[in-house]
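Following up on my earlier thread - several people asked me to post the actual chain instead of describing it. Fair enough. Here it is, all 350 residues.
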Amino acid sequence: MSAWATIADLTEDRVIYRDLQPCDASLPGLPALRTLLGLPANATPRKRDTAYARVILALARAAQALRNGPPLTHVVVIGDTENDRLLTLHLQALAEVAAYGFIGVDRPVAPATLDWEGVVATATRWALVHEWAATLTARGVPWAQTAVLIDIDKTLLGPRGRSDGAIDDARAEAALIVATDLLGDRFDRTVFRQYYTTLCRREWHAITLDNQDYTVAMALFATVDVFDLPAIEVQLAAGLSPTLLELLIAAQQVPVELQALRRQLIEQIEAGNPTPFTQFRRAELVTTAARMADGRLTLSNELFTLGRRLQAQGALLMAASDKPAESALPSPEQQTAGLLPLHRTPALLD
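Reply from S.P.:
Thanks for posting it. Predicted structure:
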């Protein structure tokens, strides 16, 4: 019999998205933490930044205090990317707690291996997370004084090597939905898909910053010939990298259907908002929830099982994602339509 669960079954509302505003309103928000930690007022730390580790540790301590738990001595990170490894190392470098990390993927064609490098283990099977946790127990990690931070995208939800493709598919569908909403039949869907796929590649990250808001916007403006991608590619090859803001400001002959979006993007990028294309992110929540509902996008059974076991031993469980809040928390209109926050949306355990 298939089992279903939610992220909140493990973490309750101890979930943090890109804006570092905890879903649990009883935890301190980023403005309060900026003051507490002496962080700059005009920047939101990202996972690869040392400041992000400081924010996570402060939130974990606050969450532990709220449940009257003993002082934290350890933080462990479970994820799938280099950024998760860096977060572990930054936590360890703070020298306030001991830190360990697990970086996983399912690689069925490779031998099952769990390789340690310092405090971080890398595995070719998600199932090896149990062996990793057993190693930590043998090393004396006191789980009742440990915060377990689990990455969401392509780790707990859509584990890499298993159902992670559904996350990418949801974004691609959301991009097409927004393009259709804005342009109707006035664009070539095949061309849009080709541009979107191209712009997702690493060689375009100098302009897109690996930000899906930027990627979708560029694909949209290129499809209607406002941006000349081949010409921009020549600039990239020459070491010249125009920013999206520069391209938008210089844009000529923008169709009337995209003029409001152009103004919105310019305004939001100039204000330092890393999520300027809100319409796309709202659509992404819808397409992601649909894939969770029909079983295409699943929760990791191994991580859920481990989380439950560590929870029973007193561990504090939290989840974090670089996903913008707009693609994880429904707008008032979406709430009225019955859409739930991502971490409270049921998904199949697989």
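Residues 164-281 form one domain. That should answer part of your original question.
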